[in-house]
Amino acid sequence: MIAPHSGKRVKSVSAKHVPDMPRIPTLMHVFPTFGFGGSQVRFAAIANHFGRTFRHLVLAMDGSYECMGRIEKGVEVERVVVPIRKRSTLRNAFVFRRFLHLRRPDVLVTYNWGAIEWALANWPQFVRHVHIEDGFGSEEAEVQFFRRVLSRRIALVRSTVVLPSQSLYRLARNTWKLPPDRTRHIANGIDCARFALTPETIAVPTGRGPVIGMVAALRPEKNIGRLLRVVRRVAAMTPCRLLIAGDGTERGKLEDLAGQLLPPGSYAFIGHFDEIERFYASIDILALTSDTEQMPTVVMEAMASGLPVVSTDVGDVAGMVATENQPFVVPRDDEAYFGALYRLVCDGPLRDRIGAMNREAAVQKFAVARMFSDYGSVFGLRDVPVLVKAGADVAAGGNGQVQGVE
User: Which of 28, 250, 256, 406 suits a disulfide with 218, CB 3.0-4.6 Å?
Assistant: First the structure.
């Protein structure tokens, strides 16, 4: 809309005296959910790092936006709403494509299978597309569905596809048959210095013994029931406590199961917890019991915090942890998990040695500056300063320059 003339005289300015202002590129991010999870937390870290270099549109397919709180002030981010109907793929594709024509983002960024309809809506492609695949739900923990494989093969053949784990990268190349020049392995990174500090601890369950901790979205594929069953066996032989951070659809069911298996006061579900470094400072062992993972952020954070990790052998976990920790990455069955967890609960000096080796490995492997640089390149940057708050890239180990807008 053009404003009516005010009647005031306006001094004209010659175009040659108006400095050229760089156009801020817009990235549209489509998530199945924007609740707390690895891909959402990573996006928030990337958005915070690049600051005003990008403008972000964020759409959560399920309407959940809890992770918005992780995005710092000064980052230009807009929560968008698009009507979505379940089991109406063709109608949704029409609505999504019309929205893309209306908003014209520079890059469409989709996350995981739950956002694949946006990739299909962008075909034939008129908005540059980046798809980031972090893993699968419980339904694809054991085997890939042929229909989904075919859909990915068609929808992503002209897209840039980012895989954070080596196992996912091999899957994209060998099973999805995506072209090698379209696939990128970008390992996740974290700010290890943040977790090297010794923050104030939080309240833990009363009683004696080491504190076993888990940080997870409480969903079926995390198989937290396995942890509750194993902790019951360990606690019957030696004192220990359990602290679980996270929320999700399974919480009520898991709290009921814990009440049946564990003594009152020996465990606690604390829900979502923002100051996660304080959580790690309050536990002695990180437990991961998932049936499917790729490159879990919680493993990197626990390692940087100097903790040993007991995990099921999923995704890249065995290659992430220090060599000394690898015997505690075990098959996905209760007996193997019990043996690994019991041994660490009983041996404090061993926990300390493995934790120290994990911290050293985290600093070497999970450089956040490298991750920022790689994602900047994928999003189309070259040789311009990143507009971030003072000191942000110093903490990340950067030099204030990345690749600028293509």
Answer: 250
DSSP line for 211-251: EEEEE----GGG-HHHHHHHHHHHHTTS--EEEEE---TTH
Does the structure show a pLDDT above 90 at 279? yes
**63: region left, alpha or beta (phi > 0 left; psi from -120 to 50 alpha):** left
Pair 272, 36: CB distance under 8 Å: yes
**Neighbouring C-beta atoms of residue 318, cutoff 10 Å:** 15
Q: Quick one: DSSP state of residue 368?
A: H
Strand partners of residue 131:
110, 161
CB 62 within 8 A of CB 33: yes
Name 223's bridge partners: none
What integer pLDDT is reported at residue 275 of this predicted model? 87
Alpha-carbon distances of 226 from 104, 176, 238, rounded to whole Å: 46, 31, 18
Omega within 30 of 0 (cis) for the link into 385: no
In the chain, pLDDT over 70 holds for what percent of residues?
88
Distance, CA of 6 to CA of 203 (rounded, Å) = 63
